[in-house]
Amino acid sequence: MSQPSALLHRLGGDLSARPVLFIHGFGADRFGWAANAPALFETANVFALDLPGHGAAPSEVGTGAIADLVEAAYEALDPAIEGSWLLVGHSLGGAVTLGLAARVPDRVGSVVAIAPAGYGTGIDEKFVDCLPRLESEDETEALLQTLVSRPRLINRQMAAHVLNGLETPGRREALSRIGDQLKTLRAPALPDCPVLWIWGTDDSINPPSSDFAARSGDSYELIEGARHMPHVEYASKVNRLLVSAAGSD
Q1: What does the alpha-carbon distance between residue 20 and residue 84 come to, in Å, rounded to a whole number?
Q2: Distance separating alpha carbons of residues 58 and 36, to the nearest angstrom
Q3: Residue 82 scores a pLDDT above 90
Q4: Is the whole model's pTM more than 0.85, yes or no?
Q5: 3-state SS assignment for residue 222
Q6: How far apart are CA 100 and CA 191, in angstroms?
């Protein structure tokens, strides 16, 4: 069994500016940040990661443990990129960004965690079980629509993209292993750097925890009416937060 590996992509921006790294959620890939990454091109050097078992990265994920995904993310970082990274992660990617910030605190200045796995009240097990088993565009579109408050944000093209990714050899098994780990994931260690938490008030996939919000000690933004993907549902609002976070260090 080979070591899980992630794949780093440069999306654009100013080569001399602060590096920003986007890390996607469960079953997604770097293209999930299409509504957000360009908002930082004028002021940041913007990258996105395909985690093991996702996108263009290899399907090998080992046991699917979050710690292994964190290590793969660390190995993918370009050591030649100077500056204090801003990490932006959604759901599964949120857990990875927080783990990565704890893993290499000297390279990470701050984190934006969007509905991060392990810090809500618990992952919807039906969702993580169903996604790797999807077979048709109809069922894929229906499942993806549970992520958002406005179903029209999910179209057939998105459903086809997810299905196409699932046909990558080993991909379904890889996602099943990661999904099993997500079911029991509970609040990994927090990094020392500032964290901006963003959550949708109506998230049913990974509902926000009012107890955690009260004791987090960091900035906490609840997006009214959003479900599990506030960065897609309310992109303009979240992008303003991202631009502010990118310029805060």
Answers
A1: 9
A2: 25
A3: no
A4: yes
A5: strand
A6: 8
- C-alpha pair distances (Å), 223 with each of 111, 124, 180, 236, 241: 18, 20, 28, 12, 11
Domains and CATH numbers, the chain: 7-246 (3.40.50.1820)
Residue 213's pLDDT band, with cuts at 50, 70 and 90, is low
Would you give the end-to-end CA distance of the chain in angstroms? 40
Residue type, 76: A
Chain segment 93-102, per-residue pLDDT in tens: 999 999 999 9
For residues 134 and 191, what is the distance between their CA atoms, to the nearest angstrom?
Answer: 35
Contacts 24+ apart (CB under 8 A), 212-219: 212/119, 212/120, 212/187, 218/194, 219/194, 219/195
Q: Residues 162, 133: contact at Cβ < 8 Å? A: no
Res 214: pLDDT: 59
Is residue 68 within 8 A of residue 59, CB to CB? The reply is no
